[in-house]
Each structure stands twice: as structure tokens, then as C-alpha cells.
């Protein structure tokens, strides 16, 4: 069994408009943009990162905004809902804030004994806030949300699958333990995690497969401490029969990827070196940072990428 994984690292999704996406995550949700860079494989497209002050693993939501991208179709084989942790007693504040911002899909409920508020992102993305007692992770308050209400990072993410079995076995192999099952949803938790500790598996045998597009999660990443731990995880996965990519340098972390039995793309990402490797902490996310291989494109990219504040 793998013991090196310590919870979620980041979640990466697709969007249509960079400026709309940036406004929602910074102005509405109050997160910090910790990096403005480009897609390694499509440098004419941004890669935007939002999180806490320094982009701590377990807090980072990232986006590829593709202009003119088709709308995604929700279904099985994808991440369904990305859930953020907020302090107890703060959902009333967030209901008012999201209502004033014109967010769609607002709905309050409870799951696994926790109060939640569901809402949609600008491209129909599935999100929720959940009240968590004593989540002491550092919060970012630079965008007008007070410490009493600010997002602490991820709480969980849900996987929509036709069949739970093989993915449940994979999560168990990855060090997760089954916590509970309620209303057709099985919760898995990572012991001793980073706070972004839960994966909820929703079994939907009669739902069509998802179609990737705006509002869809592209992949979900799990955190390991360093490259040595990542190589241990890679070997364990390959020894079990998974087809895992070589290690890829993503400038702010190293990554490996593999496809799960349920169709969801998993990444294992390192906590090192972090988002301050090429920017001072006080100015994270301000300048356009380019991978070395795309630096020669800077002038054209700065002229053609959609301006964002």
C-alpha cells in the first residue's frame, strides 16, 4: 500500500474566459492568484492558479481558459464537485456573498454530518463550501474576505463513476480509508493528511459519460512531499499495472499522471519547489511567468492573451 500521499494537491479545470475566471476566484471567492503562466502544451492558453497566500498544496484551484471552448457535459468518469473548507458558522455570510455576486445553483444541504453550500462557477463548474471545525490552515484575506469566513483550502472532491469497485480499490491502495457510506456516496479519507483529506465516490450506473469542456475538471492531483516520495509512488503504481507517465517538470512541482479505472485522470504532484521559486511571495501571480521553452514567445503571448487584472 502507498503511504506517501498526504491529501489533495490541486484541481485543474477548463474555462472559457480568463478574465471572468480570474474575477470569480479572486473577487467572489476571495482567493489569491498565485501564478499567471501558460499551458505547457498550448502556450497560447493561460494556466491560472488560485489558492492561499503562497499556494499551499491542498489549497490550489487551477484553470486552463480556452477561448471559444465548448461547454462541458456533466456525467460519469469525472470529478463532480470540488469542495472548499470554511469556518463553522460562515455559510450565511457565503450565501449572501454568492447571491450578491449572481452565482447560480445555490443550495444548502448536509452530508456526512457537515453543512454544505453548493454553487456553480462561471462555466457551470460544480463547487461547494463545507463548514469545518478547527481547520487551522492559513487563510488568504487580501481580497476582502475576513479571517472568520475565508476559505482554508480544499476539503474534498467527488468522483462520479458508473462503478465504484475498481476506483475504491485504487484509493485504498493509495492510502485512503473508507470512512462512511450514505445515500449512494462512499467517503474515503487519508489519515494524517494536509487538510484536503477526503474523496467522495458517487456511483451513477445509469448516467452517460462526461464530455470535457468549459466547466469540467481536467484532472485532480494528489500531494507527496518530494521527488523521492513521488518516485516511490510511481513504482508502486506501475508494479500494480497502471500506465504512469514519466516525471514531468511543471516548474512549481513535478508531476506524474495516470488514468483511473473509472476514467478520471489522476496526478501525483510534489510539494516542492513551490510558487515562490520565480516570484517574491509579496508579488505572486502578478507577472506573466513562462516556461523556459516558451520564453521566446513572450512578445506575441503578451499581445494576444486576454488581459486580466
Automatic annotation (TrEMBL):
Q: Which UniProt keywords apply?
A: Dioxygenase, Oxidoreductase
The VOC domain sits at 7-132, 153-271
Query: A Gene Ontology MF term for this entry?
Result: dioxygenase activity
What top-level branch of life does the organism fall under?
Answer: Bacteria
Task: Respond yes or no to whether keyword Oxidoreductase is given for this record.
Answer: yes
Keyword Isomerase carried by entry: no
Report the Gene3D superfamilies cross-referenced here.
Answer: 2,3-Dihydroxybiphenyl 1,2-Dioxygenase, domain 1
| Protein name, entry field | Ring-cleaving dioxygenase
Instruction: Provide the species name.
Output: Aliirhizobium smilacinae
Amino acid at each position: 500500500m502507498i503511504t506517501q500521499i498526504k491529501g489533495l494537491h490541486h484541481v485543474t479545470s477548463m474555462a472559457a474566459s480568463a478574465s471572468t475566471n480570474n474575477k470569480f476566484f479572486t473577487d467572489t471567492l476571495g482567493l489569491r492568484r498565485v501564478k499567471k503562466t501558460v499551458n505547457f502544451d498550448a502556450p497560447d492558453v493561460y494556466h491560472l492558479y488560485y489558492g492561499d497566500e503562497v499556494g499551499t498544496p491542498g489549497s490550489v484551484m487551477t484553470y486552463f481558459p480556452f477561448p471559444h471552448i465548448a461547454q462541458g457535459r456533466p456525467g460519469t468518469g469525472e470529478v463532480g464537485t470540488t469542495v472548499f473548507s470554511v469556518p463553522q458558522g460562515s455559510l450565511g455570510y457565503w450565501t449572501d456573498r454568492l447571491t450578491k455576486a449572481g452565482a447560480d445553483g445555490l443550495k444548502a444541504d448536509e452530508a456526512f454530518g457537515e453543512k454544505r453550500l453548493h454553487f456553480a462557477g462561471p462555466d457551470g463548474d460544480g463547487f461547494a463550501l463545507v463548514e469545518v471545525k478547527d481547520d487551522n490552515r492559513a487563510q488568504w484575506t487580501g481580497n476582502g474576505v475576513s479571517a472568520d469566513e475565508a476559505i482554508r483550502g480544499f476539503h474534498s472532491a467527488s468522483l462520479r463513476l458508473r462503478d465504484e469497485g475498481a476506483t475504491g480499490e485504487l484509493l485504498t491502495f493509495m492510502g485512503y480509508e473508507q470512512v462512511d457510506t450514505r445515500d449512494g456516496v462512499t467517503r474515503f479519507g487519508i489519515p494524517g493528511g494536509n487538510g484536503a483529506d477526503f474523496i467522495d465516490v458517487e456511483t451513477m450506473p445509469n448516467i452517460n459519460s462526461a464530455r470535457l469542456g468549459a466547466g469540467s475538471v481536467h484532472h485532480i492531483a494528489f500531494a507527496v512531499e518530494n521527488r523521492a516520495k513521488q518516485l516511490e509512488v510511481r513504482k508502486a503504481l506501475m508494479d500494480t499495472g497502471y500506465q504512469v507517465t514519466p516525471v514531468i517538470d511543471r516548474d512549481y512541482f513535478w508531476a506524474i499522471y495516470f488514468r483511473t479505472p473509472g476514467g478520471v485522470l489522476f496526478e501525483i504532484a510534489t510539494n516542492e519547489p513551490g510558487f515562490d521559486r520565480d516570484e517574491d511571495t509579496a508579488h505572486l501571480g502578478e507577472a506573466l511567468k513562462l516556461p523556459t521553452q516558451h520564453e521566446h514567445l513572450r512578445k506575441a503571448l503578451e499581445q494576444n492573451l486576454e488581459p486580466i487584472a
